[in-house]
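Support request, please re-run this one:
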Amino acid sequence: MNIKEYVYVSLLTAAAVVMGIIESSLPPFFAFAPGAKVGLANLVMIIAVFTLRWRQVWVMQILRLLITALFTGFSVFLYSFAGGILSLLAMYLMKQFGPKLVSMIGISTVGGFFHNFGQLAMASLLAKTTSVMLYLPWLAFFGILAGFAIGIAGNQLITRVKPIQELFIKESKQWT
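Re-run finished. Output below.
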């Protein structure tokens, strides 16, 4: 990685951390579905997925989770880690299908679902009961909606913000 890439990864990581901390301090957006959030930090992650190499994205995700944990605590870290790693793995696998079969919106939607699935799997593991998974339909619904919205927003950023657009074009040549 060159200096420009280090700076870009650092800026994206910082933006994701700040967005995550801000969102965690806001009142619940979906009062009828406790724990459901839009996932603003995932907007930065979807931009990273489409503008960075995978190794850089994984490093960024781990850094984001660790730094955010300093502000939110260990229990939040466990849930975020499970959801973040599983969703990134799912997005990585989906992206392997290529741009002709799956879009940024589709990849983000899959990421939203698997983020919630990972969090519930961690809750199930910690609570030592699978009954926690009964909450999956609710969270999956909101995860898919949030992933869809984040995918649309990410798509808009990539097409309208010139520096991001240039990185996307550069990285997409390696994708095809």
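Residues 3-175 form a domain with the Arp2/3 complex 21 kDa subunit ARPC3 fold (CATH 1.10.1760.20). The chain has a mean pLDDT of 88.
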